[in-house]
């Protein structure tokens, strides 16, 4: 979709600066990595860590797929209950591998074959499709695949960050209550790039990252106890078993659709108008007009009052003693704000209805909301938060010297009022994860 003039400009620039590939032929490298493409297999990532590669052939070995639990789940399903390991969210999201048309087309082709064979998604699976570009809609429509995805529940819900950023929306209240009542091991499968504990949804105990076609397959399977490579997804009209290999499109099928339906003019249709700003109205003042009641953008006090005071490393008390793998999603989550959180209570007092709370990420320009996001992760394990002799999971801290366990934000406020210096004690990989200004 790029104009010849732009291509020529980039080529000339790259050649002039020595970045053109021909100029690198004689480059010498300190080390050379070899990669055998024949060893590549179908993979997912998780649970809980995006860097934890999970070959789908190793689901049993890793203790995720489980025949006994799958069988028990089928009994539960026959009784109208959700199974252990229920996939409550299956989302094709806007980032990473969804930017590749081949992956989106593969999902559409898998959905088409599933529809032809009469397969359905499980009723407890909340499905969504949020491509990062409106072009995806155009080439899927051109290929006749958008309706196939819609039949399985993967209709387009928007063109932005959704499930990957904890913005999948509310579950069906009946499903949510069953998860709570049974303390069900519920999961999410998404084509995003982050799956840290507590990020994707408050009621998804763990999440797995997968390609768009695998997301569709898991919506049909309905549980991660299912061996997605081997187990039977259903039967055809003749009673023959259907497995993933019967649905998975070939490279040739995918390439044919991409060649025929992904077109330069689609990108021009979407992106040229996007960058046409038209007439720009000049503001009366270059200074921002701060609104004192805004919960999105508030004048920051970082160089005023107590926050501008002298900091020392003396007389510190621990706010939290934390284990390994504390991520930015523990430090300052970006996902949906709940009413029973410190930030939720604050927004409620500010007059916002719960349906307009939005996410922590969208409120990070308001320090009064963002401060209340500090360690506001329900999966946080603070070893100081001991209740009845047991460490209690959640956004909790213990205020000293009283030894009183309370919500993390209330503990922080208490210490701020006392002008008490604090320290965090944490294990390996503290602060890993998505970039997050407030986490820093």
UniProtKB/TrEMBL annotation:
Pfam families xref list: Aconitase (PF00330), Aconitase_C (PF00694)
Domain Aconitase/3-isopropylmalate dehydratase large subunit alpha/beta/alpha: 1-222
Name recorded for this polypeptide: Aconitate hydratase
Top-level taxonomy: Eukaryota, Metazoa, Cnidaria, Anthozoa, Hexacorallia
InterPro entries the record matches: Acnase/IPM_dHydase_lsu_aba_1/3 (IPR015931), Acoase/IPM_deHydtase_lsu_aba (IPR001030), Aconitase/3IPM_dehydase_swvl (IPR015928), Aconitase/IRP2 (IPR006249), Aconitase_4Fe-4S_dom (IPR036008), AconitaseA/IPMdHydase_ssu_swvl (IPR000573)
GO molecular function term, any single one: metal ion binding
Gene3D superfamilies: 6.10.190.10, Aconitase, domain 3, Aconitase, domain 4
Domain Aconitase A/isopropylmalate dehydratase small subunit swivel: 345-440
Cofactor dependency: [4Fe-4S] cluster
Signal peptide: none
PANTHER family recorded: ACONITASE/IRON-RESPONSIVE ELEMENT FAMILY MEMBER (PTHR11670)
Family: Belongs to the aconitase/IPM isomerase family.
Keywords noted in UniProt: Iron, Iron-sulfur, Metal-binding
């Amino acid at each position: 979709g790029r104009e010849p003039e732009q291509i020529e400009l980039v080529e000339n620039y790259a050649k002039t600066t020595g970045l053109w590939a021909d100029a690198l032929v004689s480059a010498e490298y300190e080390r050379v990595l070899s990669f055998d493409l024949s060893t590549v297999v179908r993979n997912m990532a998780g649970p809980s860590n995006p860097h934890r590669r999970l070959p789908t052939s190793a689901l049993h070995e890793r203790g995720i797929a489980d025949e006994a639990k799958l069988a028990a789940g089928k009994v539960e399903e026959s009784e109208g209950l959700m199974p252990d390991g229920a996939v409550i969210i299956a989302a094709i999201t806007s980032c990473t591998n969804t930017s590749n048309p081949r992956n989106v087309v593969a999902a559409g082709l898998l959905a088409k074959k599933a529809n032809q064979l009469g397969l359905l998604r499980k009723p407890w699976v909340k499905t969504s499709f949020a491509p990062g570009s409106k072009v995806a809609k155009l080439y899927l429509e051109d290929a006749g695949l958008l309706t196939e995805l819609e039949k399985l529940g993967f209709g387009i819900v928007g063109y932005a960050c959704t499930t990957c950023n904890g913005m999948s929306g509310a579950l069906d209240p009946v499903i949510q209550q069953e998860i709570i009542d049974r303390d069900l091991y519920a999961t999410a499968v998404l084509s995003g790039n982050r799956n840290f504990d507590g990020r994707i949804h408050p009621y998804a105990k763990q999440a797995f990252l997968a390609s768009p076609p695998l997301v569709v397959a898991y919506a049909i399977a309905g549980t991660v106890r299912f061996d997605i490579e081997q187990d039977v997804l259903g039967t055809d009209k003749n009673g023959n078993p259907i497995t993933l290999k019967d649905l998975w499109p070939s490279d040739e099928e995918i390439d044919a659709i991409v060649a025929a339906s992904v077109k330069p003019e689609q990108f021009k249709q979407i992106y040229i108008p996007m960058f046409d700003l038209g007439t720009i109205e000049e503001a009366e003042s270059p200074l921002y007009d701060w609104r004192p009641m805004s919960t999105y953008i508030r004048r920051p006090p970082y160089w005023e009052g107590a926050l501008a005071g002298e900091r020392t490393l003396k007389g510190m008390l621990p706010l939290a003693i934390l284990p390994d793998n504390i991520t930015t999603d523990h430090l300052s989550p970006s996902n949906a704000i709940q009413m029973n959180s410190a930030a939720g209570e604050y927004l409620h007092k500010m007059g916002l209805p719960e349906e307009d709370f939005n996410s922590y990420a969208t409120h990070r320009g308001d320090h009064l909301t963002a401060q209340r996001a500090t360690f506001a992760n329900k999966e946080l394990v603070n070893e100081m938060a001991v209740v009845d002799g047991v460490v209690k999971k959640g956004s909790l801290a213990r205020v000293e010297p009283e030894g009183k366990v309370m919500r993390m934000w209330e503990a922080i406020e208490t210490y701020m009022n006392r002008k008490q210096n604090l320290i965090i004690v944490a294990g390996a990989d503290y602060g890993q994860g998505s970039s997050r200004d407030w986490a820093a």
